[in-house]
From TrEMBL, chain B:
Pfam families for this protein: DEAD, Helicase_C
Protein name: Superfamily II DNA RNA helicase
CDD domains assigned: SF2_C (cd18785)
Keyword DNA-binding recorded: yes
Occurrences of domain Helicase C-terminal (ranges): 291-438
Recorded GO MF terms: 3'-5' DNA helicase activity; ATP binding; DNA binding
Family annotation (InterPro entries): DEAD/DEAH_box_helicase_dom, Helicase_ATP-bd, Helicase_C-like, P-loop_NTPase
Boundaries of every Helicase ATP-binding domain copy: 106-258
GO biological process: DNA recombination; DNA replication initiation; double-strand break repair
The keyword ATP-binding is annotated on this UniProt entry: yes
Signal peptide coordinates: none
């Protein structure tokens, strides 16, 4: 018997043949089947730039508008009603325990990516004080990462959701590189990690800072698109 | 600018103006080796710590997160309301029976007693409380009308506001769109009471036996703490649980009975019918023959009906089978259904001929002329209270006081038998007060 971290109901974790054949001890799933099904994984064809689910593999309309500022992002889940409900409770209500819900899928997704350094998108000082955690690093479970990006002290934090698309697109560079960053990322393949891909602005701003620090390549992974 | 009235009789975190709010109390406190939430009194798990070092409570997260770095502030309830001589603007009339019950309730309130009103489904219990409420409001009391069910609150709020048109009212529930406003009347879910402390002179708890209040010590604590030490409460129910019934028998709780519906007709009794192996039928996507027959007859007569089934997961299969059997013109509805209100209204407006549903429609919904059918009344989800409530959907209007209630079972359970006994007993009392058979 396990208690689902999201709905608090008890459930019998299913055991697959694959699990039994693995030599490692069985990981305890954090979510019951019902709650797992609230997420919609992005599978098959998707936009090569932002990772959104679509019928074709050419750049989507939104990504075309970015022109030459390309990005290679992969996303795990669609940003639908279920994911919104999850983010609402985890990020905005601050239910840190819910980080466990997506640790396993993220673990598997990271294992398939090729990169040298993992860089999570940071939260600003005020968010750190009020929320008490960085929602992105919460999903990591033992994987090494480097916090080389910082939010500039003078950056006015305003929730992305409160801005219009136009406002989000003109936000000035919010990030700066940590003093020790150069040593870590120079000539490395960097993977950025963020929660939701909305317009792609944040990730593009982060990527340009990372390139500034001498990285060889920058790609990104988000939980949702 | 901080609005101090927000803190009258409440326990809230504050970000500004704390100098005018006194010292405040820590929201999450260390007690020995563990941490306890001071808002909901639950213990934290030893994994509920944030990377910034604070401890947070997951149990009452829906009310806004509190941590070991949060302080809760209170201003003692000042009862700052403008007096009104006769606040009751309701012009309806109570039946002699309702009048008698209303008078008793008012007397108990005046004597400062906590009490219970046991009124059958369709007795008009809301209106019975009005005279006592008018008295309380005129005295400048702060009153909460709380229910464990959101739909009950939503249905009540406009009625109470209309009945007390000049009295300030605030409605509180999980996703309420309007901001909090200090008001003399608060209509809210019992959960919301966790935000209050010694605020109310009187708390009316509607559907006191409904889930989750009946089984939640947390919500019971919320009621106790929201009530002033000098305050009192009134429980309203059509189906008191065994614990409340015991308290009534032992006279530790004063009770007023209203065994007769407002229109003076007796309650429809559950007719139990055998449906051999309904569970296996259901698994194969089939329904018992007698049930199909009965529903077809209803359709031919133009009789609208509610079909109650044990589980949400059975709904699609049942709808498909009904369709194959030619029973069309209805839809299914369940708790998380976003179109729930809309579907209920469609049945009321006769745009639908039936609804297939689970126990979520057991309370708070009224249709003027409806037949009620329960499939699998012997399933554990149908408690005695649920069955009596479901049966109580039938015969609500004075024009159609009859209404059939049929319950298909494979075995006679304790809950079914008790429901029948409760209805028989209430009807016996009803008859003594002149109740008629429909
Ligand atoms: Zn769950
Ligand atoms: Zn794209
Ligand atoms: Zn709590």
């Amino acid at each position: 018997m396990t208690i689902c971290v999201w709905c608090a109901r008890t459930f019998e974790p299913p055991v697959t043949l694959q699990d039994l054949l693995r030599w490692r001890p069985l990981p305890v799933p954090a979510l019951c089947l019902n709650c797992q099904e609230r997420f919609t994984p992005i599978t098959g064809a998707h936009c090569p730039a932002c990772g959104r689910q679509q019928a074709t593999t050419v750049r989507c309309h939104d990504c075309e508008r970015w022109g030459a500022e390309t990005l290679t992002n992969r996303a795990l889940f669609q940003y639908d009603a279920g994911m919104k409900a999850y983010m609402q409770q985890y990020k905005f209500q601050g239910d840190y325990a819910l980080r466990k819900a997506l640790q396993t899928p993220l673990y598997q997704a990271l294992a398939q990516q090729s990169y040298d350094v993992l860089v999570p998108i940071p939260v600003d000082q005020r968010t750190w004080l009020t929320r008490g955690f960085n929602q992105v690093t919460g999903w990591l479970h033992g994987q090494p990462f480097q916090q080389v990006l910082r939010v500039k002290a003078d950056h006015k934090s305003q929730p992305q959701s409160a801005k219009t698309r136009a406002e989000r697109l003109v936000t000035p560079q919010p990030f700066m590189l940590d003093a020790a960053a150069a040593k870590i990322i120079v000539n490395q393949r960097v993977l950025l990690l963020d929660d939701v891909y909305t317009t792609g602005r944040t990730l593009r701003q982060a990527a340009s800072q990372i390139y500034l620090g001498g990285a060889k390549a920058v790609t990104s992974l988000t939980l949702a698109r | 600018m901080i609005n101090l009235s927000e803190y009258f009789g409440r326990r809230l975190p504050a970000t500004t103006g704390t100098d005018r709010l006194g010292t405040g109390k820590l929201a999450v406190k260390r007690v020995g080796q563990r941490y306890q939430c001071q808002r909901c009194q639950q213990w934290l798990a030893n994994s509920d710590q944030l990377p910034n070092g604070a401890w947070y409570c997951r149990q009452c997260l829906q009310l806004g997160r509190v941590t070991s770095q949060t302080k809760l502030y209170t201003i003692p309830e000042p009862n700052r309301f403008s007096p009104s001589e006769s606040p009751l603007t309701w012009t309806g009339k109570l039946s002699p029976d309702q009048q008698r019950a209303a008078e008793k309730i008012r007397q108990h309130v005046q004597q400062g007693q906590s009490q219970l009103l046991w009124a059958v489904t369709g007795a008009g219990k809301t209106e019975i409380v009005y005279p006592a409420l008018a008295w309380a409001v005129a005295r400048g009391w702060r009153v909460a009308w709380a229910s464990p069910r959101v739909d009950v609150c939503l249905e009540l709020a406009p009625r109470i506001q209309a009945a007390f048109a000049a009295v300030s009212q605030c409605v509180l529930y999980g996703e309420q769109p309007a901001p909090y406003r200090y008001s003399q009347l608060t209509v809210c879910t019992t959960h919301q009471l966790l935000r209050f402390e010694h605020a109310f002179d009187w708390i009316i708890v509607d559907e006191v036996d409904a889930f989750p209040l009946a089984t939640s010590p947390l919500l019971q604590l919320a009621i106790t703490r929201a009530e002033k030490p000098t305050g009192q409460h009134l429980y309203l129910t059509a189906t008191p649980g065994e614990k409340l019934q015991r308290q009534i028998r032992q006279r530790t709780l004063v009770a007023t009975y209203l065994p007769l519906r407002y229109h003076g007709y007796l309650l429809p009794q559950l007719r139990v019918k055998l449906a051999w192996r309904w569970r296996e039928y259901l698994r194969k996507g089939r329904l018992p023959r007698p049930l199909i027959q009965q529903l077809l007859t209803y359709l031919q007569k133009g009789q609208r009906f509610l079909l109650f089934v044990p589980h949400v997961r059975d709904l699609p299969e049942i709808m498909a089978e009904l369709g194959r059997q030619g029973i069309r013109g209805g839809v299914s509805v369940h708790a998380a259904d976003p179109e729930r209100t809309c579907k209920v209204q469609a049945l009321r407006d006769q745009r639908l001929s039936f609804l297939v549903t689970t126990t979520i429609l057991e309370r708070g919904v009224t249709f003027p002329n409806i037949a009620v059918v329960i499939l699998g009344g012997d399933d554990a989800v149908f408690s005695t209270a649920a069955l009596v409530q479901i049966a109580g959907r039938a015969g609500r209007s004075a024009k159609f006081p009859g209404g059939e209630v049929t319950c298909y079972v494979q075995t006679q359970t304790r809950a079914v038998r008790r429901a029948q006994v409760m209805i028989t007993r209430l009807n016996r009392q009803g008859k003594q007060r002149g109740g008629r058979r429909p």
